[in-house]
Batch of 2 targets.
Target 1
Amino acid sequence: MTDRTILVGMTTQELEAFAEQLGEPKYRGRQLAMWIYRKGVITFDAMTDLPKAFRERLGEFAVINPLQVIDVKVASDGTTKYLSQLPDGETVEFVFIPHSDWDTICVSTQVGCPIGCKFCASGTSFSRNLTAGEIVGQVLIARHRENPNIVFMGMGEPLLNFDNLVKAIRLLNREVGIGARRMTVSTVGIVGGIRKLAQLGMQVNLAVSLHAPNDELRGKLIPAKLPPIAEVMKACWEYFQATKRRITFEYVLLKGVNDKVEHAVELARLLKGLPCHVNLIPYNPTVDEFERPSESAIERFRQILADKGIPVTVRHERGTEIQGACGQLRRQHLATLEVKT
Ligand code: SAH
């Protein structure tokens, strides 16, 4: 498969050039783009307005999606988690989350993650960046209907794979037809990346995984060397000024660690004035070191922020029964492989 050309990840222009390489007129490339990105077909045979001979040549020289689904888990609420294999044998996971009026697709940007947040299942290993085609390929597989929201909140740190991330956003926007405002890039706080993203002038949303209101506590939860919170806040202001998009702050609540009254008060002070929204995420157990706070502790934290005028919601859990948290399914898969070998 690897010596064949992978089509997902190419722009219409690139597909036009590819069609010409195979001796076809340029407009065949536009037809390919339409079938692959808009209609989401997964075989060349389904491309009924292409001549049969061309379809056969495509089958010989090209593959559509670089991802092959190897495991699918569906929860009772419809949340669906996919595990896919990449051309080099690595695996990646992504999640489809249905809502009544819209769907959300949570995609990965790296195989594993180099950041190593203490509470996260992805951070235990890092292999490589995903290509733009491997990012877009997840959306094409998980898309159930038009206009899903796309959140770059799966495995990996999107802003450490900046060029491929931006290429994927552009493909999703221009080729797949998903509005930039429906996409959210979630970052641990890579300041340089936030600034670069702001300068691109796209309307994508920014979510910052803060998890602590001060550098000392943040350093304990996120051991990677990161720019201090003050720098992150400055970059967030710039992001807001450039895009006029309200910033989301994600805060995983860990019992007895970052869920105290003093933390909520300090967080409210930190965010004061910035057009933002706080997403409290009760810890989804992955490692024994942490526990999820009680419902009353979660509510207390939420209320303090709300009383201080900070828009805040508690993220309702989806898909825990199918290992919905970041990196869990892949870890389980790798563990099974280890048992087998
Ligand atoms: N690296 C990016 C995006 C991937 S993580 C980032 O840090 O934002 C997506 C979100 O899931 C982050 O907010 C992360 O902290 C959170 N998360 C990871 N493991 C979790 C767990 N076990 N329970 C709850 N949230 C978790």
Note: The chain has eleven helices and 14 strands.
Target 2
Amino acid sequence: MFSRKSLVMYLTVFTIVSFSINNYAFGNAANKGWRSSPDLVEELTKRRSETNYSEQRVPKYTLPNPLVLLDGTSVTDARTWRTRCRPEILELFRKYVYGRAPIARPKNMSFKVFDRERKALAGLATRKQVTVNFTGAKDGPKMDILIYLPNAAEKPVPTFVVLNFGGNHTIHSDPSIKLSEMWMRSGSDGVVKNRATEESRGRSSSRFHVEKILKRGYGLATIYYGDIDPDFHDDFKNGLHPVFDKLIDSERAPDAWGSIGAWAWGLSRAMDYFETDDNIDNRRVTVLGHSRLGKTALWAGARDERFAFVISNNSGCGGAALSRRRFGETVERINKSFPHWFCENFKKYNGKEDDLPVDQHMLIALMAPRPVYVTSADKDLWADPRGEFLACRYAGPVYRLLGLRGLGVRQMPGLDQPVQKGTIGYHVRSGGHNLTEYDWQRFMDFADKHFQR
Ligand code: GCU
């Protein structure tokens, strides 16, 4: 869509007008903000010598300015942001990072509520389970949404939608949750689906805290990400890809969607269902994801502005962390380990982060004017906590252009000191790569504030 010439011009203009960031300044002695433990840095560096875990070794870099158009024009008003700048940036992410979904809402998609229980969880909630049949065809791809809505809350209820890794039945021990069919790798056959066993029921409940969410007056909806697309590099033979890719071309284009694109698209189809459910407040749906699913939540929120609040938990490389810092996981590393997550074009930037027409602060800026919340974890240096914080900070000019406060702070906060002053929220939590009750409580604090509850 963009000529080489305009891209070159775009990058040149950025280099001239954009801000140069010597990020190490954030770690100086006057700053009481978070710093990684030197022992941890040493230990991780020993374990993975090819990976940079040290702030001193972050190269100097220049970020693209999110408020400059491809033709070099500075964006100084909200209307130009909305009508020209935002669509350009979104298209750059589609083309060079996550890939393009071949279809919006399929015409024959159908919803079937196969379970409705008004006295679930000892009367605390109403539980629903809904099958979304993406094509309407009997043997076509489907996903199941598990929904709990608090009985005590006024309807419609603001609701969190979260993809899960282990199957819907793993988020709670409720015996009525349908056991998901799980994608598994199987010898020479590649990938197959098998029904999960009872043993795994409730296994990831420490990441969901269902009762606590309901008691704070929020609904929770969750979907097994494998229902949408298996998380294996299978040459896009399973899940959604084979069904919808054929609508476009016989060969996969360099900007064809990968798995993150498919998972994010699935979230939009869940939103389509929420719009039909009178008990869900579809104007206050929050999309939340952890790790690779945090990358997915950000991409879902960028593509689909029906999500009113977007949360990235420990999403790291290809999520909230700035790629140009090359700290922890890098573009090359992620593309080699997970060749199916992003589009083919993204691989051209392996080791060439400075050539990328975007960086992840621009992804965060695509949420504006909606609230967005990013978390890091103290021990999760692989995901580059400081790079995640900086992406939030440098999304700020877009929020300010729209008359809002971004993060509202310039320096990285201390451990367990959430920043919730503006429209961008952030915290770095003690502990490792995980989604914990602490994180959930902070998300609900921020949601309370922005949803005026
Ligand atoms: C790996 C990967 C990360 C990802 C994480 C996860 O660690 O390198 O990019 O976020 O898996 O999804 O758990």
Note: The longest helix spans residues 78-98.
